[in-house]
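Lecture 7 notes: from sequence to structure.

We start with a single chain of 453 residues. Read the sequence below before looking at the structure.
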Amino acid sequence: MAEAAPSTGGSAITANTERFPDTKNHWASSYIDWAVQQNLASGYEDGNFRPDRNINEAEFLALLLRAYGSKETAAAGSPWYEPYYKYAKQQGWPLIYDVADNSSFRRGQAALLMVSAVTGKRLTEKEAIQWLLDEKLTTGRTAATVSGYYPQGTLTRAEALTFLYRLSQHSERLSSSKIPPEAANPASLRGVAIGDTLAKTKLILGEPQRSDETQEGFTWQVYNDDYSSFAMIGTRGSKVVALFSNTANSWEVKPKLKLGTTLSEAIAIIGSKNGQENEFQYSYVSGSITTTLFIDRLDGNRIIGILQTDSSAYGKPGTASASVLQESYEQQSFDLANAERSRRGISLFTQDDKASKSARGHSKDMAARKFFNHENPDGQTPFDRMKAQGITYRSAAENIAAGQSDSIYAHFGWINSPGHRSNLLSKTLTKLGTGVAFGGHYGVYYTQNFYTP
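Now the structure, written as tokens:
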């Protein structure tokens, strides 16, 4: 059912029903014609307007700001909706960062966005709908009540333009007041928190440099263009379900928890009585979120990495093949090493294909022949294997691990082992190759080969 017409309000508008074939005799034809005259909206290439097509938040936000005179255009190469979101975010308007899904933006969310924009107040969705009803800007879909407004319903182009016409007649300008922020999320990684959308993540951080599948079924969106702010954002479908980083410039954990904090200080801050301490980690649960603090046992029990996962991350198991997971783990192993070095002010490793081939071959050999050692059953050492790949070096080294669930846990195991740590943090080794294989006694094997030409 269409949005019911109001009994009062606004100046008169007329419809040009011949402009679009599919708006003739449409209940919102006059509102559509107003929007076209005001250059708020236009038709499609086929000559139709598609008044009953659902609209997403980005489209609605653009229409709202255009209705109040915005002439913003995106910079070359930027998404068309970027300036609208930038303004709305500055004003503190409630956003869900829906820029693609035309079935997820609801009438209730549209009400909240509109009323927040003109009142400058932080309201609940119910309060916003009631404001529209009290101000006679809607009579609802089925009744002039909050439930009759049908807040859970999707919003069409025709309904959006109807709302915006009435709003612009009621309120001549948007509020200049910025809405105070809500209480901060308990943790965020570069501005992204668990429960946010993938669309919001990409709006804030841009497209990830890589997307890695996991055995658990969620996907890591990897941001490694700057290792000083290295971040892995885990998503399942359109929602953020996990966060990880081992760099100081990424995490914001409230109130005072941060990388470099000692474990004893962290426990005092958390106030958790249900935490569990293991070899090089401390985990605690709050609601549906598990936070794992990775600890540097060789440097005062300081926190050097934080992983957060929501229970929804572990839904339907993943279907990624072993070869896909192998490649993801290998690249993450390299990223983690460089992020660690970046945080400690050490020059970054260069990724080396020959070293990677050597490392991968050793991991596969350990899995296939069910051994775990730097020296294989044929008596070959890491240096023999690297030389066999055509590597000539002044210095070289190898790290191996087995049984860890993924590269994150393998990395922190190495950092907490003096010899492995020395290789990862070496100021003389310059090149790194990583190799992972599945199978054998331990399920998964990790190898890192380092050298200096």
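Residues 74 and 316 are 39 Å apart (CA to CA). Keep this in mind for problem set 3.
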